[in-house]
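Supplementary Data S3. Sequence and structure tokens for construct A.
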Amino acid sequence: MRITVLLSLALSAAVLALSSGCVGTETGHTTAGMPLTKDTITSRYEKPVAPLAAAARAVLARNGKLLVDNVVDNTFHAKVNQRNVWVRVSDLDGKISVVSVQARGPMGGDVDLAAEISKQIALQLMAGQNQ
């Protein structure tokens, strides 16, 4: 009985150790985390990079605290609901721009928060257009 319990405990510890590691962020850095969880939402727009970056900046500042605003490569890092959120706005082919939103909490990826931030960026972009 003790051998079975010890074996299952050792097996659980091995699986936990093998599943944890480093995860790349949208800003190009790495952070500790479980790489097996989905944490990124990617959206494409027929808009230039500048209005998308402005919309991302406004959404992140409204929902949390904007920690990094890199205007050179249009990447952002913010804390929203005690989770790290990274956003990258990049030009795909001159006509189409890509917005990637990555959200990670202490237990791994938070795809729901990433989807919510991505949706708010789209709504902010449309609200800025209508003014």
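Construct B, processed identically:
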Amino acid sequence: MESDEQSIASAETHAGLARPPGESGTREGPVESESVKRASSSGGGRSSYRHEQVTSRVRIDAVLRMLKGESVDALSLELGISVRRIERWKTRFLEAGSAELSKRTDTPPGGWVAKHSSSLRDWFWLLLALVAVICLLTVFMQRGSQG
């Protein structure tokens, strides 16, 4: 079973966020998003970045950092995004991961019939042969009882 760090590293790799070997799990410096730059330049509070668009890469990175143990408050300040919004990202991320893991992977794409088609064909021919034998026996038994 994978450790949490291996699972998170795997998720980062799939999301295109893998860090070079030897780099620590946290960023060396703050990563400012466009919303932070706009909010700080306009001098506004939380309402100035309330409806800003954030890329999926930033959202995934923030959630992974939070799952690694980074403070949601620190992420909120760094990215200029409300704690509540980051928590919603985390919830959606975990729900999507749970849904993906709950999918069955042991059934081939063609389904059960495609997987067992040769075996089903063999059983079909055996059944057909048995029906033919029963029909022949019935005919012979009727001839024997008449004569």
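The longest helix spans residues 117-146. Residues 20-49 have pLDDT under 50 and may be disordered.
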